[in-house]
């Protein structure tokens, strides 16, 4: 069986790593990198740390408007698919790379397997929501991380080919947690005391491209009283510069994006995580660190329902208040994201298809 995997953005490297490892034990994988993320700190570092094989094709698409980026990927992926004639195409998550890969395959009648299917924020203004909904509707196999995701698909009439396998990010985390503890020097590097700092991440389009939300989050970060580490996504760095906004709180350690092992170490030892990332909300939950999420809604509703995550939007006062108030009893929190064997289930199901 020949399976063509298409990835291109930071969280997809992390999700694909455990699945790809398992896949290569049972089938032939052709790996395509769209080039959506291209800085070494957004791409190469994950291939090295997670031992992801070198892509067979690097499309080098880079940063563009949504239409141009997705359109160029669609055309380039189509050419690769015609040449490689895979039995299946695998896509991950909800980026423009996900949609372009799924659409190119579906139009050539090549079956698509979607990992992290069924997620919904119910906010159609998010580019990711459009990408998820469309990808799910052209996929033949839909690998859901949770029961909630399965029920979202059911409501949209998608029941065939749906499997609740658990979350592949649990697989990645369990595989790398010990290695991160042993090899990461990030705490010493920045003089951080375990449980003595906040970890923040910030990149979501709605929080960077809306000037009011950008300024409000910057104000909150500038007012934080505790030591705070912020590995900043290049998108946010650019938007702050364009708006002439400065992050000048002496408590703030502003970093370039860090690798996955340093990130796991920073997350596990934080007293609190402040984020607008999807993956980071989940990792906070898994590592039992209270999370404050700077969004108006989340796809990972289970983390909020269980009291481990608070949604605060982008209002600076609301952010600061939640940071002060949040208190989570992790003894009462139930696991919902699976047992770390999602990749195995995905590959078992996929390889039974022919
Ligand atoms: C993308 C995904 C988002 C995901 C995020 C993970 C879409 C629509 N969005 O958002 O769902 O949460 O990746 O990180 O697919 N840039 C660089 N260097 C890079 C990559 C990006 O400087 O290596 C800058 C460019 O100015 C670019 C901007 O970041 O225009 C945004 O990059 P893009 O890939 O379009 O979206 P993300 O915000 O990264
Ligand atoms: N991540 C990382 N370094 C960073 C920021 C994030 O390794 O500087 C990891 C994080 O641990 C998680 C994934 O990247 O596994 C989340 O990606 P991101 O926040 O870019 O995207 P999202 O999950 O919101 O789509």
Automatic annotation (TrEMBL):
UniProt record similarity statement: Belongs to the UDP-N-acetylglucosamine 2-epimerase family.
UniProt keyword annotation of Isomerase present: yes
Pfam family, one: Epimerase_2
Superkingdom: Bacteria
One annotated GO molecular function: isomerase activity
Keywords: Isomerase
Domain named UDP-N-acetylglucosamine 2-epimerase: residues: 22-350
InterPro entries referenced in this protein's UniProt entry, alphabetically: UDP_GlcNAc_Epimerase_2_dom, WecB-like
UniProt source species: Desmospora activa DSM 45169
Protein name, as recorded: UDP-GlcNAc3NAcA epimerase
